Amino acid sequence: MRERDPSLNSGSLWRSPAVWVVVAGISVAMHIGKLPPAVPALREELQVSLVQAGFLLSMIQFAGMFLGLMVGLFADVMGLKRCMLTGLMLLSLASALGATSQTPATLLLTRFFEGLGVLLSIMPAPSLLKQLLRGERLAKMLGWWAAYMPIGAASALLAGPWVIDALGWADWWLMLSCITLMAFYMLYLKVPSGITSQAEGHISLRWGERLKMTLSSKGPWLIAFCFCLYSAQWISVIGFLPTITAEMGISATSSGMITALVAAANILGNVGSGFFLARSAKKVLATQALEQHQAELRESLKQQAQVPQEGLQGGQDHVSFGASPAFRTSPFEPQPAERSVEVASHGADAGTGASASTPFVQFMRFVLRPEGMSARLLLIGYLTMAVGGALAFVQINGVSLPAEWRFVSILLFSCVGGIVPGTLFSLAVKLSPSSECVAITVGWMQQFSSMGQFFGPPLVAWLAVWVGGWQWTWGVTAFMAMVGVLIALKVTLALMQEQR
Q1: What whole-number percentage of the chain has pLDDT above 70?
Q2: What residues contact 475, with CB distance under 8 A and at least 6 apart?
Q3: CATH entry, 15-287+366-499, from 2.30.30.240, 1.10.540.10, 3.40.50.150, 1.20.1250.20
Q4: In angstroms, rounded to a whole number, what is the distance separating the alpha carbons of residues 29 and 235?
Q5: What HEC string does 381-433 produce?
Q6: d(CA 248, CA 335)
């Protein structure tokens, strides 16, 4: 079996082959972001309705909605790199065929195969990054990986209106097909082959046992629901933003730039989550090292205190190493007298049920500690998405907020909300029931993400047609965000149990 090159984990992060995994993900995300700028042209040339446009936006997630778990299950067996290469090639071919579409049904069919290519390309990536990097470097790169969607979508949203205006939507499809082929070639050259958990000897369970272990664990279900609620909100708002701005009288190129800026703001949240998680990981490791050092000192002194005292004769005073009233094992340890007072205080608290030991206080202490950074980021992300979506779309007596305030609200919705997916990818590694189940956990999470992206845009489009405008979009996004907050609380409790 092929061993992983140790040089993969050394040197600059940006010289690592892991960078090309992220680049491939960006090229894939451009196919998800290529459709919104093309909706006006498709409605004119192919007579695509608004609801059909919603399904075109979401059809690329149809395969992931049903096959995500299976692809995640067998990606490691197939080979992580080989699985990504297969997906990139399928995506490129489907995009090229889509350029020849003459009816909405044909375009919808090619979007399904594009979705299958997206699934095969995206699913193995977190596991592949986990094999290429470790520790703080992995946390940072996972943050960048979470940004693959907004980077690719923003690039497509920015370039799409110009290309479509100059060449047409079909040439836009062909151009992205060529970009994906280039990503295929670079991934083939730069990323070593044979990098799987099997190659490292980590796979000891059959696929059925790994599947059962994953689906019987609470963690994968919680983060899967979290991703579903996030992706449904984000793709619904970003997907229809060019149409919304066009209905406001803004030109196609200007609306494309606005949407690209909003999507690009999401990158700050994605990368920021990796930064915060990496910094908290360093603090946790430093604390664990200090605690281990203190434990070793205490054990050493305990052994010294148990040395037989035969050498003490006659009138010599008996000396006890453990009886020194002023001795502390480290500067962070209290004096013995202080320790006794502290123990007594804790005992009193336990006996009286003081507020310091209530579940709420324990919850808040955990969230504010470095160990609770993941939970803190999830709560902040969902709450900001709820407020930002409400301020962007709500109308009072038929009047919306001023345009500049709505724009800032959508920016906050996308930017701060962007910390959610980066955090969830990190939690997929942490809350997986075993290192052998990481790919399956990511597959389950991606399946629910695809489910959210499939149902979100048609639901928002249907509601807009029913009420005659976009003013109730905030109700859908706020409801999803608040359910996300509730599930994030469950994730926090699961993380607290992991710490015990």
Answers
A1: 81
A2: none
A3: 1.20.1250.20
A4: 12
A5: HHHHHHHHHHHHHCEECCEECCHHHHHHHHHHHHHHHCHHHHHHHHHHHHCCC
A6: 70
**What's the CA dihedral at 375, 376, 381, 382 to 10 degrees?**
60
Take residue 208 and report the two structure tokens written for it.
């059925």
Summarize pLDDT for 423-454 with one digit per residue, the tens: 888 888 788 887 777 777 877 888 898 888 88
Q: Quote the tokens at residue 207.
A: 């696929």
Distance in angstroms (rounded) separating the CA atoms of residues 45 and 103: 9
Q: Are 372 and 495 in contact (CB under 8 A)?
A: yes
- pTM exceeds cut of 0.70: no
Domain boundaries of the chain, sorted by first residue? 15-287+366-499
Give me the long-range contacts of 457-463 (CB less than 8 A, separation at least 24): 457/54, 457/55, 457/57, 457/58, 457/235, 457/236, 457/239, 457/240, 458/51, 458/54, 458/55, 458/58, 459/232, 459/236, 460/54, 460/236, 460/240, 461/50, 461/51, 461/53, 461/54, 461/240, 462/51, 462/54
